[in-house]
Cohesin subunit SA (Scyliorhinus torazame), 1251 residues
Amino acid sequence: MESGGLLETEAHFSSDTDFEDFDGKIYNPTKVKSTSSKKVNISGEKGKSGNGAKSATGMNRMNGHHQQNGEVENMMLFEVVKLGKSAMQSVVDDWIESYKHDRDTALLDLINFFIQCSGCKGVVTAEMFRHMQNSEIIRKMTEEFDEDSGDYPLTMPGPQWKKFKSSFCEFISVLVRQCQYSIIYDEYMMDTVISLLTGLSDSQVRAFRHTSTLAAMKLMTALVNVALNLSINMDNTQRQYETERNKIIGKRANDRLELLLQKRKELQENQDEIENMMNAIFKGVFVHRYRDAISEIRAVCIEEIGVWMKMYSDAFLNDSYLKYVGWTMHDKQGEVRLKCLTALQGLYYNRELIPKLELFTSRFKDRIVSMTLDKEYEVAVQAIKLLTLVLQGSDDVLTSEDCENVYHLVYSAHRPVAVAAGEFLYKKLFCQKDPESDEGTVKRKGRQSPNAKLIKTLVFFFLESELHEHAAYLVDSMWDCATDLLKDWECMASLLMEEPLNGEEVLTDRQESALIEIMLCTIRQTVECHPPVGRSSGRKVLTAKEKKTQLDDRTRITEQFSTVLPQLLAKYAVDAEKVTNLLQLPLFFDLEIYTTGRLEKHLDSLLRQLKNIVEKHVDTDVLEACSKTYHSLCNDEYTIFNRVDISRSQLIDELVDKFSHMLEDFLQEDEELDEDDAYQVLSTLKRITAFHNAHDLTRWDLFSSNYKLLKIGIENGDMPEQIVIHALQCTHYVILWNLATVSEGSSTKDRLIMLRKQMRAFCQLCQHYLMNVNTAVKEQAFTILCDILMIFSHQIVSGGREVLEPLVYTPDSSLQSELLSFILDHVFIDQDEDSHSTDGHQDDEASKIEALHKRRNLLAAFCKLIVYNVVDMHTAADIFKQYMKYYNDYGDIIKETMSKCRQADKIQCAKTLILSLQQLFNELEQDLGLSFDRTAPGFSGVKELARRFSLTFGLDQLKTREAVAMLHKDGIDFAFKEPNVNGEGYPAVNLAFLDILSEFSSKLLRQDKRTLYVYLEKFMTEQMILHREDVWLPLISYRNSLLTGDDDTMSVVSGISSRGSSVRSKKTKPATGKRKLPEAEESNDGSWISREHSLQSPLMMQSPQLTSTVMREAKRLRPEEESYMGVYQMPHHQPAVDYNSQMSWLIAQRQQEEARQQERAAMNYVKLRSNLQHAIRRGTGLMEDDEEPIVEDVMMSSEGRIEDLNEGMDFDTIDIDLPPSKNRRERNELKPDFFDPASIMDDSVLGVSMF
């Protein structure tokens, strides 16, 4: 009775329990039994019920929720599921009750539920349900799909719709679960639902297709669960039958045997029907939708097939179903590939299923390995996790090459990828159980602990990876899975300190260095509690438990290494690399433990070792590490401060005394420089410089000695370069420490004056060393000069530090020129020319990269001076002109400098840009001659650079209006600055520059184009207008570029003003004729030129009309002009203009100019008329000036016609007016994208036969 008990238990949770007896035998009076060959009807035909008369009330009785007094609740089934407030089981139970009373009405509710869940506002009526096929109903609903946007419930944003998908899926699952004992076998409900969902999944409308596919897949999942339960019940029934049959005849119950046989038969019939339903869904929906054009639909299919294979592996976990997952791993969308991997993870996690996956693994293993490098990081993470499960299932599946492809990902910058790879590495190399290990071995510590072998394995892996500078990333990758191993510092210290055991292999020098580096990285990550640089977006907020763990670990580190560190330093005292890493350990100590733990003697031992290392080493890294260690220990918050401070002072006293005595002997005038003495001076100077970086040594007065050393080096010129470099650096530190002291406000005025003298004297020394023959010395002097000029610039007084104003230092023109010359000589050079700064290893790629990095730093230091207005902005012209030539090396720096300069001063930046182009143009004339060919590569390069410069001005022409106009004015002045020596009939020397200048014409406003055209006419003669030779083409093209913008197509202002109006308003615009501006508007367009005249005095300054525009009243401007005309104010240094004394002159000049304009207009009219007559005789069409407006009018009229066509038509976002598909061939013709694998998969999937 085991089976009967199971069915009875499940019956308590079912709404159709009245169809079941106490033995679990299933009855269904309304059901007609089907045979095993019976197929589910999905052709669109629906069975007709005798309850059709009641279906007319279906739209009023929504979901079976009845109230007292016979009233019907007006809430649709869709609304109940959307709100998600009611328990889903009660909702389903109510629907089942309504189905028992009137199944047509209940099914109509269910059909409308699916339609509404798709976002369709149409309703299936009872009449449609009785007389129309599914395909006709879907077509009707498609026609009524009048959504305003492409969103539908499954994709709608907002909290209301977030839980809709889960509620929708839960409803389907509960519906099948509650109906699993009778209703799903009545050959009506399931046939209707499956037929509807199959038809909707074939719709052209995405919302129908997506919603119905999700519903069908969840329905399939629920049926798989039912099939699994039936299979279990059949096995139980069969076992009970065999048990009963094997009894002796006397004890055998024949009635029970007959009952079990009948029950097994009915279960078999039910299982056959469930299989028919599942086949109908799989073949009608899944097989076509797993290749749908929409990635979300494909993802739904793959996700659910993974559930089926995991839930009912006996039926679905075979190659016929696995191949769909394998093929879809090549999908173009990361979302779908991710679903494939997560589906496979659920299968490989169960080791009992792995034998069934052998063929699939061999076929698609390479694809999974390649997905570890997927461009979607989450896909790569899941691919690595899948390979980890494969590795756990079988060690021999993945080859060493496959594993190595995953190993190197522990150094990935993306932390989730690195952590997943670290777990894979740990499972492969560190989880191998040692057969010799037992309980006694676990208790052993140090070198004999089980971790000793694993730590050696980690060291070997680190060295074999050949990425020795990335130990911190390796440690971080394994931090989550191997924390106990990485925190076994006692074992690490034992491996370094203790002698190897008998037969144990000794660590080599490289292995010891690697172990020390790994140990340092583990300690740093333990104390800092955050990943290394580049692997985290922000600092993690620690929980209380994590903070306690951090403090405990820090205490353990201090207790462990406070005694061991002096011994390690003594052992490796002569090894610079090992000592540098070991000296960083005290930075992570809890220094209070030295006092509370009575460890002062170990502190004294550490200080002795530090002093010993300083005396032995001259390597900069070692000395800086010692300096940082002293700085960390010299913390006045701890009681050990006095002890450490005394030791530090004694060390500095010895170094300074030694340096002073040796310097006196070294600088004797009568003796030549001795190499041994020079080495002693250099080594001592290196130690002092390293300590001065982190410690205030002002009381030792190092400025005098270093200044004397540097000055003698300039006078004699034979000072060793390393001594000069470190003397410059040490003196720089002296200046900065003095500034820090003065900034605190506790110093006297004499101290401030002394610092000012020292700083200026030092800057003069650095300026002299810019001319040194040694490149390294010049680079050091340049870097220090840039730093000092930046620190002591005008910004030093900001933040309420006006007392420091005497320290402000502004570089003179000579110093600026020398700094610029250094940049041009040492930065903008070819890679092969830079042979001095790489110590002769130019062929080494690493040396080339290092040299480029150094040059970038030099350029950035100088550009910073430009950006912060420390040096004149016009010096940037020599930098900007290199933008194209050195774009790969310095393009980002130069572009950022342009952006910052434009933010600081738009007009001056524009002048600098045009100056750089003028310099390049002059260089072309010097190289190619005055009459060079404008098709030459050099000229094309300058023009391309101008085009790039133009793009940097952006799209907002109002913001850059005055800057661009000034740029054009300077360009025009330059083009006509030098007249031709042959006379006025010949072009100016720089006339070709107008061709370059025309690249900026598109950035001009319409008004400014006319003003510039007037300004250009001042330089033109009547003969120039008539010339048409090639040498005059730059003038013609530039002139035309100013004329073509006379319409609205080139003006941002018109674009902005027209956006508010409709297309219909544009139709009313006249087809011909140009819009005239008021006189006041035209005159105000020239205000930027007048302002420039007030600042400078160019040759063409005398222009009464342009000068008078300064005096125009602002109230006559258009509103959009007022917004930008008020931005550009007069500079503070501009002299005041006496209005009363100049008004009479201005009025007279204006009257003269108006007379000249009338005369010029009459002459132009005569010329224009004659030219038009000549053009007509030659058969030419329209004049050049009229071409652009005609194009504009055509465009406008076209837009108007389009609007007329659109009028009265309500277009939807999806093309829905398509005939319904009759068969698969028609559907392929209508929407080939849905079924073309090339649209969703890589080429490697197509035509691949899996088995």
In short: Residues 443-539 form one domain.
